[in-house]
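Assess this one:

_____
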Amino acid sequence: MTTATATLIPTGTYSVDPSHSRVGLAVKHLGIATVRGEFGTFAGSLALTEDGAVATGNVTAASVDTNEPQRDAHLRSPDFFDVERFPEIGFRSIAIRPVDDETFEIAGELTLHGVTREIALTAEIQGAEVDPWGNERVGLEITGQLDRADFGMKFNQALGSGNMLVSDKVKLSLDISAVKQS
């Protein structure tokens, strides 16, 4: 079950507009530098009613792009996303709870690399607006964090300094523009 969100967002069903949205990740490399990437293919929806809210989304794992082709190929391999066996990453909210007028917490289930685990996300409402073509839109910034080892992604290497080649901690960052469906 979900609980109602504080709403600057009018009730209705909204679909993510991929041309005005971004789904990103960030992870430490060698313990000293942050590598950022994005997924180019994704979809999602947010349904708001008087009784609650439900958010869903999916990402095509093979669309990962870190601006380095060799690294991207490695990320698509069985060491990481294993896109041949697990082509999609999926999310479904369990509960959405308002924190204040512009922020809410989303508890949900993330399915990644064939494993489903609960994850907590924080969403900040950036605003609602009607675009020049009459479409009602809402903007959200969503952040979260996961431990990739919890999803069976265990590829790594210890370095002489004590750092690891790749951090298990992965930061998630989504900039979402969603359009209300008629």
About this structure: The chain has one domain: 12-180. DSSP finds one helix and eleven strands in the chain. The first helix runs from residue 69 to 76.
